[in-house]
């Protein structure tokens, strides 16, 4: 009666970014949102570049947190 449950813990075949961008439904959503495929590709490229950057050292992150807290109002 019911379809067997899919096992979401295992990776499966996923569409490529090109397949997704060329999908007619995605085109309709992008047109509605006034987004061009080139705009979307720029965002993806920026995210990839960001994710490939090495993480800041914990020491640097700690200083940033202290400096941020200096500018905040006390509780």
Polypeptide structure, described:
It is a single chain. The protein is mostly helical and 75 residues long. It contains four helices and no strands. The longest helix is centred in the middle third of the chain and has 16 residues, at 37-52. The model has no long low-confidence stretch (mean pLDDT 78).
Considering the chains and any ligands shown, give keywords for the structure.
flat, mainly alpha, about 55% helix, single chain
Determine the N-to-C terminus distance. Answer: 57 Å
Task: Note the run of SSEs as H and E.
Answer: HHHH
Mean pLDDT: 78
Number of strands: 0
Task: Report the biggest beta sheet as strand number plus sense, adding barrel if it closes.
Answer: none
Poorly predicted spans:
none
Structural class by sheet pairing and helices: mainly alpha
Rg for CA atoms: 21 Å
Summarize the structure.
With 75 residues, this protein is mainly alpha-helical. It has 4 helices and no strands.
How are the elements arranged and paired?
Layout: H1 17-21, H2 24-32, H3 37-52, H4 58-70
């Amino acid at each position: 009666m019911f379809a067997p449950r899919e096992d979401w813990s295992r990776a499966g075949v996923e569409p490529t970014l090109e397949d997704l961008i060329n999908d007619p439904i995605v085109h309709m959503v992008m047109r509605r949102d006034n987004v061009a495929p080139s705009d979307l590709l720029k965002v993806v490229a920026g995210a990839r570049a960001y994710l490939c950057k090495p993480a800041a050292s914990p020491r640097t992150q700690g200083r940033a947190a202290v400096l941020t807290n200096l500018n905040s109002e006390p509780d």
